[in-house]
Amino acid sequence: FRRIVLNNPRRRNALSLSMLESLRENILADVDKPDLRVIVLSARGPVFSSGHDLAELTSSQGRDYHTQVFHTCAEVMTLLQDIPVPVIAMVDGVATAAGCQLVASCDVAVATEKSTFATPGVNVGLFCSTPAVAIGRAVPRKVAMEMLLTGSPISAQEALLHGLISRVVPEGRLEEETLAIARRVCRSSRPVVALGKATFYRQMAQGRDAAYATASRVMVENLALPDGQEGIRAFLEKRRPAWSHAAE
Asked: Name one Pfam family in it (predicted).
């Protein structure tokens, strides 16, 4: 697996345009190489990410610049779910606004007990409309609206309860628990995981009947993969599968 670390703690790991562009570059780096199975996203310092850099959002920057910031941010968030490898957020601290959006956009998120999550844009006159896209798809609607309308933070346990994150762990075990998940994913077939991830997000955007049609078709495609047949043979022969990681 590969690690990406937000490394600007003095600026609370704000998602400035340059940070977003760097993040996009790092997400896409070697993403199609067979050896890459998982990306782990973490941050240095007590703040995972405070969201957009508000200094870049003043009127002096202009509308075109603001458009570029939010276009790039949306591209990064969608990339996390569109790339073929799972992305795991490893959170130890505060994740607010677009930082909370970043966590919500990852496939899996593990956080320490002290971590908190919030969308406080409304308190500075900028409603968190783009974070709402990811958060509103991760937590129940009324929970999302309370976060968006009040800006009040929720605890890691509340985030777990509502589905924003996958697991809460003691601070001293964050890396151990996160990397254990990453290693478990790495033991599976890369093309099978890639197909499953893509299908999950595709069917979640569909109605029930269309989702079943999509998933049924993909199950047949999965069976046609070399590793689909290898896994079944290994199960029947009571042995470990020897994955080829071949896409066809």
From this structure: ECH_1
Residue 122 tokens read as 């409304």
Q: Do 120 and 132 form a contact (C-beta atoms < 8 A)?
A: no
Tell me, yes or no, whether 141 and 216 share the same domain.
no
Sheet with 154-155, edge to edge strand ranges: 47-49, 94-96, 116-118, 154-155
Specify the 3-state DSSP secondary structure of 76.
helix
Do both 54 and 159 map to the same domain? yes
Do the beta carbons of residue 61 and residue 96 sit within 8 Å? no
Q: Which residues of 11-38 are buried (b: 16+ CB within 10 A; e: fewer)?
A: bbbbbbbebbebbeebbeeeeeeeebbb
Digit-coded pLDDT (tens) for 62-95: 999 999 999 999 999 999 999 999 999 999 999 9
For the entire predicted model, the pTM comes to 0.96
| pLDDT score of 248 | 82
Domain assignment of residue 156, given as a range: 2-186
